[in-house]
TrEMBL record:
Domain Right handed beta helix, first and last residues per copy: 319-408, 423-549
SMART domains named in the record: PbH1
Lineage per the UniProt record: Bacteria, Bacillati, Actinomycetota, Actinomycetes, Kitasatosporales
Residue ranges of the region described as Disordered: 270-290, 648-682
Organism for this UniProt entry: Streptacidiphilus alkalitolerans
UniProt protein name: Right-handed parallel beta-helix repeat-containing protein
Compositionally biased spans, kind Low complexity: 659-672
Length: 682
C-alpha cells in the first residue's frame, strides 16, 4: 500500500512531471470542482513511467490497517443486525438508520422500486444535502441491503461528494443489492471524496478515505468520473466489486412445509435438489447447484421432517462498467469473486497502487478498450485464481511496475491453513493491446496454463514479455516488440510447452531468451539484436529453434553452448547477422574434444598420403640400389640358377646346335663364378 503525506496533490504532480501550465490549470480546476480536476488529469504526459510510491513507515501502516479493521467491524455489525431486524417487526422492513462507533449508516431495505436521489433527500435530509453549486454532499454511509436497488442518476447530471477527512469518512456499500451509477455523454456523473474544510477532494488516504463497494448483487457504472477514493486494501481501495465465499444469509428462506420428494412439488427451484436426492441423474454444469433445499429433522429417531429451508448460493458480484474514468484511487478498480463482469471504454490513471486488479475467483471477465496507465504499481493485475479473462484492445503505458501481470500459480502447494487448492489457473488472453514505457516488464506471466499473448504492441520496457514459474502451454504469437532494454521475449524457470511464433523483436540485447524451459521457437523475426538473436541456457529438453530470420550484431545469432538436453536448432536465416567474435575466441572454440579427435584423424590421413607419394617417387626414379632399398627380400642370397637343357636325338642337327649352346653358356658362367660349375641335365 502506498500513501501520500503532506501536500500529496503536489507530490502527484511532481511524479507525473506536469508542466508549469498544467500546474496552473490544476490549481484553477481545484476551485472549479472535481470535473475540472479530471480534465486537468488528462493533460498529455511524457513517455517516462511514473515514479514508484515511497514505502510506508511503520506508524502510517499501522494507522491505515487499524482504520481498515474498524471498517470491517462496522460492516460485520451492520450485516448481523440487518439479517435479523425484519424478524422483529414491520418497522425494520422499511429504510432505517443504524449508529455504530464509526458514525451513522442509512440502511435501504428491499422493495420493488429503486431508490433514487429524490428518495435520499427525503430519507436523509440532514446527511444528503444539496449544495449551492448543485452538487450533493453525503455525510453518512449508505448500506444497500439484499434485494434493494439504489439508482444514482439525475436528468441534468449528478455530482456526488462523499465526506472524507481526518475525523472519518463515508461509504456506499451494496450487500447483495443493486447499485447503479449512470450519467450521460453530455452530463457525466461525478463522484469524489470531499473535505469540506478545504473544499477539495481528500488526497490523503492514511486516515481512511471514502469508497464505493458492491458485495455480491449487481453493479452498473456508465459515463462516470470517479476520483480520489479508497485506502489501504483492495476491498476499500476506491471502487470495489467483491463477492464472498459464503452463502448470503439474507437470501435464506423458510421454514416452509415439507413436501416429499416423491410427491408433487410446486416450487421450481427444488427440482435440481430432487434430482440429486433421487440419485438418478448426475449433476450438470447447467444445474443451479448454488441454491438448494435443506430439510429440518426433529431430534430422536429419524423420521419424515416437517419443514424445509432454501439456502442461497455463493455471493458473486456481476457488473457492467463503460465509458468512465477513474483517477487517483488507491486501487483504481478492484474485482474479486465476480462472474460475468464486462468493462469497456474506461480509463484508469494515477492509482496509488495498481490500476485494475482482478483478484481471486474473478471469472469470465471481459476487458475491452480499457486504458490503465500512469499508475504507481502495475497497469493490469490478474491475480491467482482469476481465470477465463479476456483483455483486448487495451492500453497499459508508463506504469511504475508492469503493464500487465498474469499470475496463474496455485493458491497452495500442499496442506495449508486456508486449505486452498493446489491446481494452476489460466485460460487468460491478452490480444491486440499495448504496453509501452513501463518501469518493469510489458507483460509478465507467473505460472498458470493455457495463456495466450497474441498480436500486441510492446515497446520501451525493461523486458517485453517474461514467462516464468512453471507455466504450461503459453502461446506468444504475432506480437511486435520494440526497443526493450534487455530481452524481447524471456521464457525461463521450468515452463513447458510454450509456443513462440510470428513475433517481430527489434532493438533488444537478446531477441528471444530460453532458460530451463521447453519451447518451439519458429517463424520469428529478430532485428538489431546486440548480443544474441536467440539464446538457449540450461536444461531445454525438447526445445526447437528453426525457420527464424535473425539479424543484428553480436557474438552469435543462436547461442546454445550453455544449454544441455535434447534440442533442435534447424535452418535459420542468419545472412543479416554480423559476427563480432574475436579470431582468437573462434579458434579456442575449436578446442572441443570431438573437434580434436577429427583433427587427429585428418592429420593421419595427410601423413599417410605424403608417405605413400614419396614411396611411389622412389620407384620411378634413382639407381638400382635405390630401387632395391626398401624391398622386403633385399638381404636374401639368390638361389643358384639351373639351366635346363633340351634332350635331342643324337645325330640330329638341332640336337647338336642346342647342346653346344648350353655347354658354352655354362662354361662361361662357371668361369665367371670360379668354382661353380653348371652342368646341363641330359
Amino acid at each position: 500500500m502506498t500513501s501520500r503525506t503532506g501536500n500529496s496533490m503536489r507530490t502527484r504532480l511532481t511524479a507525473t512531471a506536469l508542466t508549469a501550465t498544467a500546474l496552473t490549470a490544476l490549481a484553477l480546476a481545484a476551485l472549479a470542482g472535481p470535473a475540472a480536476v479530471g480534465a486537468a488529469a488528462d493533460t498529455p504526459d511524457s513517455t517516462v513511467p511514473v515514479a514508484a510510491a515511497p514505502p510506508l513507515d511503520a506508524t502510517t501502516a499501522a494507522k491505515e490497517s487499524a482504520v481498515l479493521a474498524a471498517e470491517d467491524r462496522r460492516l460485520s455489525q451492520l450485516r448481523s443486525v440487518v439479517s435479523v431486524a425484519p424478524l422483529h417487526g414491520d418497522a425494520w422492513k422499511s429504510p432505517y438508520r443504524l449508529a455504530t462507533a464509526s458514525g451513522y449508516t442509512l440502511v435501504l431495505t428491499s422493495r420493488k422500486a429503486a431508490y433514487t436521489v429524490a428518495d435520499l433527500l427525503k430519507l436523509a435530509p440532514e446527511t444528503f444535502v444539496r449544495q449551492a453549486d448543485g452538487s450533493y454532499l453525503l455525510l453518512e454511509s449508505i448500506y444497500v441491503d439484499n434485494g434493494a436497488k439504489l439508482n444514482l442518476t439525475a436528468p441534468g447530471g449528478l455530482t456526488l461528494r462523499m465526506a472524507s477527512n481526518v475525523n472519518g469518512f463515508v461509504s456506499i456499500v451494496a450487500f447483495g443489492g443493486s447499485l447503479s451509477m449512470v450519467g450521460s455523454v453530455q452530463q457525466p456523473l461525478r463522484i469524489t471524496s470531499w473535505d469540506a474544510r478545504t473544499a477539495k477532494p481528500d488526497t490523503d488516504p492514511t486516515d481512511g478515505r471514502a469508497y464505493i463497494r458492491a458485495i455480491g448483487g449487481t453493479f452498473t457504472m456508465e459515463h462516470v468520473e470517479a476520483s480520489d477514493l479508497g485506502f489501504w486494501s483492495g476491498r476499500t481501495g476506491g471502487i470495489s466489486l467483491t463477492g464472498t465465499d459464503r452463502p448470503n444469509t439474507g437470501s435464506t428462506q423458510g421454514p416452509t412445509p415439507y413436501v416429499s420428494v416423491h410427491g408433487k412439488v410446486a416450487r421450481k427451484d427444488s427440482k435440481a435438489a430432487q434430482k440429486l436426492q433421487k440419485g438418478k441423474d448426475a449433476a450438470k454444469s447447467t444445474d443451479n447447484l448454488g441454491t438448494s433445499g435443506v430439510d429440518s429433522l426433529p431430534a430422536g429417531a429419524i423420521a419424515t421432517p416437517g419443514s424445509q429451508f432454501d439456502v442461497g448460493g455463493l455471493s458473486y458480484v456481476s457488473a457492467t462498467i463503460s465509458d468512465s474514468t477513474i483517477t487517483g484511487d488507491a486501487y483504481g478498480l478492484f474485482v474479486s469473486s465476480a462472474n460475468g463482469v464486462q468493462i469497456s471504454r474506461t480509463k484508469i490513471s494515477g492509482s496509488l497502487v495498481d490500476g485494475l486488479v482482478l483478484y481471486r475467483f474473478a471469472t469470465q471477465v471481459v476487458l475491452e478498450k480499457v486504458d490503465s496507465s500512469r499508475n504507481q504499481g502495475d497497469g493490469f493485475v490478474l491475480a491467482r485464481a482469476a481465470q477465463e479473462i479476456r483483455i483486448s484492445g487495451s492500453t497499459a503505458n508508463q506504469n511504475s511496475g508492469n503493464g500487465f501481470t498474469l499470475n496463474g500459480q496455485p493458491l497452495a502447494t500442499g496442506p495449508s491453513a486456508s486449505g486452498g487448492p493446489v491446481g494452476s489457473y489460466g485460460n487468460n488472453t491478452i490480444a491486440n493491446s499495448t504496453a509501452n514505457d513501463n518501469g518493469h516488464y510489458g507483460v509478465e506471466v507467473l505460472g498458470g496454463m493455457n495463456i495466450n499473448i497474441d498480436n500486441n504492441a510492446i515497446a520501451g520496457n525493461t523486458m517485453g514479455i517474461v514467462v516464468r514459474r512453471d507455466s504450461q502451454k503459453v502461446s506468444l504469437v504475432g506480437n511486435i516488440l520494440t526497443a526493450q532494454q534487455r530481452e524481447g521475449i524471456s521464457i525461463r524457470d521450468g515452463n513447458t510447452g510454450a509456443t513462440v511464433s510470428g513475433n517481430i523483436v527489434t532493438g533488444a540485447q537478446t531477441g528471444i531468451y530460453l532458460r530451463d524451459s521447453t519451447a518451439e521457437i519458429t517463424g520469428n523475426t529478430v532485428k538489431g539484436a546486440a548480443l544474441h538473436a536467440v539464446t538457449l541456457v540450461g536444461k531445454d529438453s525438447g526445445a526447437k529453434v528453426s525457420d527464424n530470420v535473425l539479424s543484428g550484431v553480436g557474438t552469435s545469432a543462436v547461442s546454445s553452448s550453455r544449454s544441455e538436453g535434447s534440442r533442435l536448432v534447424g535452418s535459420n536465416d542468419t545472412i543479416g547477422w554480423h559476427n563480432t567474435t574475436p579470431l582468437l575466441t573462434r579458434m579456442l572454440r575449436l578446442l572441443h574434444p570431438t573437434t580434436l579427435v577429427w583433427i587427429g584423424v585428418f592429420l593421419l590421413i595427410v601423413v599417410a598420403g605424403v608417405k605413400g607419394r614419396r614411396t611411389r617417387r622412389m620407384h620411378t626414379s634413382g639407381s638400382s640400389r635405390d630401387l632395391l632399398a626398401g624391398l622386403p627380400y633385399q638381404d636374401k642370397t639368390p638361389l643358384p640358377q639351373v639351366i635346363l637343357g633340351e634332350l635331342a636325338t643324337p645325330g640330329s642337327e638341332s640336337s647338336g646346335r642346342h647342346a653346344a649352346q648350353p655347354a658354352a653358356q655354362g662354361t662361361a658362367q662357371a668361369a665367371a663364378r670360379g668354382s661353380d660349375r653348371l652342368e646341363p641335365v641330359g
